[in-house]
Design a protein that fits this description.
CATH class: Alpha Beta
Distance between the termini: 22 Å
Largest sheet: 9 strands, mixed
Strand order of the largest sheet: 4-3-2-6-5-1-11-12-13
Low-confidence stretches: none
Radius of gyration: 18 Å
Structural class: alpha+beta
Order of helices and strands: EHHEEHEHHHEEEEHHHEEEEE
Oligomer: single chain
Number of helices: 9
Shape: globular
Number of strands: 13
CATH architecture: 4-Layer Sandwich
Bound molecules: aspartic acid
Length: about 325
């Protein structure tokens, strides 16, 4: 029997420490720990890695701290268009939704597609309709909106007018949540959910719902969930690239993940990070920004969470 492991992220490009109060940081760490515990309960009860990934992501979608579900980014038209995907490493089963506007938990719609075993990806209105037909919770757009995202959109629009967009903080631009897990049967899974980035063009789809880019899981190799400038994750097929380096070059997870995030993607000067687990339960969570909301429960059952460089262990 394999000892289970789970790792999550709540987006890279977190704010400078001084931009939020200590209470805000504590809230974010609390919600990360809650998401990890939700996944861990599934794993320790003998549940599947896919169930654990979904459970952890639902907690982060429901939290206003992260750019997914409640608290998601707004596009240039002031609308939430959400993307999500999930992948099962055992048989490469996958499901993804893009540009959805009414599904409370897009990761659940991705999961429903995975289980159906037909189309891997549905987009826009028909993805919303599929979720409604599947009996998932549907909400109004206002459910997703938080004051923080409204302010970010206004600030990014002002910077775009001034021509100072490049100076926008990574935190204003980014976010996303994701999870990877290894279950007691030795199966891997990965999932990711996002509002994309603030002020993105209407209809823009990022890496999050693209299997092989923002999400990838393959038994015996690794599971990967990404956050950062999605266009580059798509162009580098990041999830699949990391798995390929391990499978074909024989690299360790840490080496493969560092190469792609800290070298290949960093060379564009864009923010990027991932969480990943290999078939042995090793965890790698590199990022090239000031911080990344992240956490994991390792094979010994130690729960750790972090926002910037340091990681703290908290009780399970
Ligand atoms: N990867 C997401 C996207 O491009 C955004 C992010 O993680 O910051 O949609």
């Amino acid at each position: 029997m394999t000892r289970p492991v789970i790792a999550i992220h709540g987006g890279c490009g977190v704010m400078a420490k001084l931009d939020l109060t200590e209470a805000d940081w504590a809230d974010a760490r609390r919600d990360l720990a809650e998401a990890l515990r939700a996944g861990w309960r599934v794993l320790t009860a003998g549940g599947s890695a896919v169930d654990a990934v979904e459970a952890a992501i639902v907690v982060m979608e429901d939290s206003p701290q992260f750019n997914a579900g409640h608290g998601a980014a707004l596009n240039a038209a002031g609308i939430h268009e959400l993307d999500a995907s999930i992948m099962r490493g055992a048989d490469l089963g996958a499901g993804a939704v893009a540009l959805v506007r009414r599904i409370r938990n897009p990761i659940r719609a991705a999961r429903a597609l995975l289980e159906q075993g037909g189309p891997v990806m549905l987009g826009a209105t028909e993805a919303d309709n599929f979720a409604a037909r599947s009996g998932l919770d549907m909400v109004e757009q206002s459910y997703f909106t938080t004051e923080r995202r409204v302010k970010s959109l206004a600030s990014l629009k002002a910077k775009a007018l001034e021509g100072t967009l490049k100076a926008a903080s990574e935190a204003e631009k980014h976010g996303t949540v994701g999870a990877v897990a290894l279950d007691s049967a030795g199966h891997l899974a990965a999932g990711t959910s996002t509002g994309g980035y603030n002020n993105k063009p209407e209809g823009r789809i990022g890496d999050t719902p693209i299997i092989g880019a923002g999400t990838y899981a393959r038994n015996g190799v690794c599971a990967v969930s990404g956050t950062g400038a999605g266009e580059f994750f798509i162009r580098h097929a990041v999830g699949h690239e990391i798995a390929s380096r391990i499978a074909y070059l024989g690299e360790s997870l840490a080496t493969a993940a560092d190469q792609v995030i800290k070298s290949d993607l960093a060379s564009y000067g864009i923010g990027a990070g991932i969480v990943s687990i290999d078939a042995y339960g090793n965890i790698a969570a590199p990022f090239n920004t000031d911080g990344m909301f992240r956490g994991w429960i390792d094979a010994d059952g130690n729960l750790s969470v972090g926002t910037h460089a340091e990681v703290t262990t908290v009780s399970l």
